[in-house]
Amino acid sequence: MAGKKAAQQPDAVASIIEDWARERPELDTSPLEVLARLHRTFLRYNTRLTSAIERHGLAVAGFDVLTALRRAGAPYRLTAGQLADSGLVSSAGVTLRIDRLEKDGLIVRERDAEDRRVVHSRLTDAGLAKIDEVFAEHLDNERRMLGGLSPAECRQLARLMSKLERSITESDAPQEADDRGRA
User: Fold this and answer.
1) Which residues pair with 120 in a beta bridge?
2) Degrees (nearest 5) of the Cα angle 126, 128, 133?
3) DSSP, res 118
């Protein structure tokens, strides 16, 4: 019975929309239906992601580096620039992450045999074992978080989220063109 009662009450975003409708009825608050829920969902997801990864003595930033190295395939090594290009942060930011992971014995730095100026970061055996364990648990955690959705709903949501990301990215284009025109 408690589940039915909770389902009948509006969620936090619906309450916010109702408040704005009362206070500023002339405003179209429909973007909140999606984006405020997306934001609230991300905050909850991020909290669960962070706590699950931190239980293994890793920061999310370090997890990102380890997963990029693991995805690279054997010999599980990339340069700082390649790590940055893989969707992480600047090369400087990657270097800070690498320092920590190296200190923890999860990666080693190796000079390139062809060009001594090039430095690769490579997973150690301990790093490979750690990321394989943590990533498997990460997927289990994400699977639990998606447990309220059917496989078809997950596929539909994935398609819609991809479309939303493109829409957000494309929404920057007119503004960027305007900014260049003024310069």
Assistant:
1) 79, 110
2) 95
3) -
pTM of the model: 0.78
Q: Residues with Cβ < 8 Å from 2, sequence gap 6 or more? A: none
Range 133-140 average pLDDT: 96
DSSP-based three-state secondary structure for 64: helix
pLDDT, position 96: 87
- Three-state DSSP at 18 gives helix
Please classify residue 92 by burial: count the beta carbons closer than 10 Å to its beta carbon, then call 0-12 exposed, 13-18 middle and 19+ buried.
Answer: exposed
- Element housing 162 (H / E): helix 151-182
Query: At which residue do the structure tokens 């955690």 appear?
Result: 141
Tokens of 118: 């090039």
Q: Over range 164-182, report the average pLDDT.
A: 77
Asked if 53 and 65 touch (Cβ cutoff 8 Å), the reply is: no
Amino acid type, 25: P
